[in-house]
Amino acid sequence: MLKTTGVILFLVWNSWKDIRKKEISLVITCVFAFLGVMTALYNRNVNVMYFVPPLVGGCFLGLSAVSGNQIGAGDGVLLIALGTVLEMEEYLRTLCLALGSCGLWALILLGILRKKKTTELPFVPFVLLGYVGGLLL
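Above: the chain sequence. Below: its structure as tokens.
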């Protein structure tokens, strides 16, 4: 319960920052990642599978560098931090729901509302939606 509340508060705060200022709080994200690593070490939950979710977030960070920041670097950092807290199944479910809902929203913006293809979307609110949606499944 405490982990779920912490993740939701973390995502709500960063969603608000992402929508309003198109950035995330790097300090809060680093503290969140540190607490995730310390909790895993304390509970002795560190094995090979523990490193898969942060590596997926690292791939997003790499995509950000390769694409010239078309994908925000903050999104990759946030996904790395989230990967230190969530178990692999929960993380991948959250990420899949986030990517799916973001893609659906992009289709609505492009197809129905006739926005330009250069329109920027804040990704963190979709991560929040994916996490909460995964809890409700």
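The helical segments are 2-21, 26-43, 52-66, 73-85, 88-112, 124-136.
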